Amino acid sequence: MERYKTIRHTFEPVWNQKSEILILGTFPSVKSRENQFYYGHPKNRFWKLLANIYKEPVPETIDAKKELVLKHHLAVWDVIGECDIVGSSDSSIRNVVPNDLTGLLEKSSIHTILANGAKAHSLYQKHQQPKTGMAAHKLPSTSPANAAWTLERLKEAWSAVLLQGSDP
What we know:
Structural class: alpha/beta
Oligomer: single chain
Strand order of the largest sheet: 3-2-6-7
Number of helices: 7
Helix content: 25-40%
Shape: globular
Distance between the termini: 40 Å
Radius of gyration: 15 Å
Largest sheet: 4 strands, parallel
Strand content: 15-25%
């Protein structure tokens, strides 16, 4: 039986001054922590989804993933900087230490925040929104655990915000 471990987020957000939309996950999965980059589980549909929405090839390398994010004025980070967690289970997260989003928001052109899934959204509302003063769009998770959402349904939901850049 897996046990709780206190784990610190160890890789930087992807962003630049031209970033306009911040996409927040909860906390890196075991695979993402191994790869030292976002959405590292091969069944997570995040990279396939972004490529599909923007009509780009699916990025295979970390550099190609960063390029896709920055080319489309996006930023990617996580709500949590440190927590106690069992494996990759978002539902097990406790003792949250949030990332400090304020510096990123001040130095970029971010005007829209997207939460990749309900847990990221609820954690953002609790730990981040009081500090940032910005609401976040709750989008369906790209996680393989969210099997009820096909790639096509995800594309429809995510495109509505990514391609219009609308406010919540």
